[in-house]
Structure formats: C-alpha cells, structure tokens
Design brief:
By secondary structure, the chain is mainly α. It has one domain: Up-down Bundle (Multidrug efflux transporter AcrB transmembrane fold), CATH 1.20.1640. Helices cover 80% and strands 0% of the residues. It has five helices and no strands. The protein is globular and about 55 Å long. Pfam families: ACR_tran (PF00873). Keywords: Membrane, Transmembrane, Transmembrane helix. It comes from uncultured Acetobacteraceae bacterium. InterPro entries: Acrflvin-R (IPR001036).
C-alpha cells in the first residue's frame, strides 16, 4: 500500500503540468473556448463505466486502475476531437447542423469503436499480471 501511495503521489504531482499542456494543445488545435470546454466535459463520461467494471470484478481502485481511467479520459477526448472535426468539415461543405452531426457520428462510429476496443483489450493483460495487477491487502 505504501508503494502504491508513492506512485499515486508521483502521478498527482504531474497533474498540473499535464493539465496545462493538454489545455494549451487543445486551444492551439481548436481555437475556441467553447469547443475546448466541450472536449474537456467529455473526459468524465468514462467514469461510470470504469466504476461499474471495478465493482463487478471486485477490484480495488489502485494505481493501474487510475492509469486506466486517465487513458480512458484521453481516448474519449480524442474521439470527441475526431467527431468535432468531422462535423466542422461537413458544416463547411454545406450540410445542415443536425445532418452534419448525424452523418459524422455514423461515419466515425466504426473507427472510434475499433480503436476503443483495441485499447480495452490491450489493458486486459495488465489486469491479470502479477506485476501490474491490483493486489489484495489483508
């Protein structure tokens, strides 16, 4: 538990730098505060699923789970960026807003789902690993 606390402390000390770099890159790419806020708002959408998965499997919220939630938030924000860019391209091509949103979601659903599935499957060996997996303390 002590080693896990040390690892979490080291990770938390980097959060302000990580958040600042992320905001800077998002502002550089999107050039609009509203779009940045939308992308950041979607970061929390994976938390209910992560919490449910941990509860169903009976696993603790340790260091690896924390890394998984951070990676999940990154994936969700990346997928939001991809979808927003597609909607903007469709709007620039003359589509109505509703049509652009629906068509973009349909067009990007398969690539988003496949990359998300690949990332989830990549984390499965980590959860079963003696080295990386959560330990039960008695």
């Amino acid at each position: 538990m002590e080693e896990s606390a040390k690892a979490n402390e080291a990770l938390f000390s980097l959060f302000p730098l990580m958040a600042g770099a992320m905001l800077l890159l998002l502002m550089w790419q999107l050039r609009h505060f509203g779009r940045v806020a939308l992308v950041l708002a979607t970061a929390a959408l994976g938390i209910p699923g992560a919490a449910a998965a941990l509860l169903l499997t009976g696993q603790p919220f340790g260091f690896v789970a924390l890394l998984g939630v951070i990676a999940l938030a990154g994936m969700v924000m990346r997928n939001t960026l991809i979808l927003m860019n597609q909607v903007r391209q469709d709007l620039d091509a003359g589509a109505e807003l509703r049509e652009a949103i629906v068509e973009s979601a349909v067009r990007r659903a398969r690539p988003v789902l496949l990359t998300a599935l690949a990332a989830v499957l990549a984390f499965v060996p980590l959860t079963l690993s003696v080295f990386w997996g959560p330990r039960r303390w008695r």
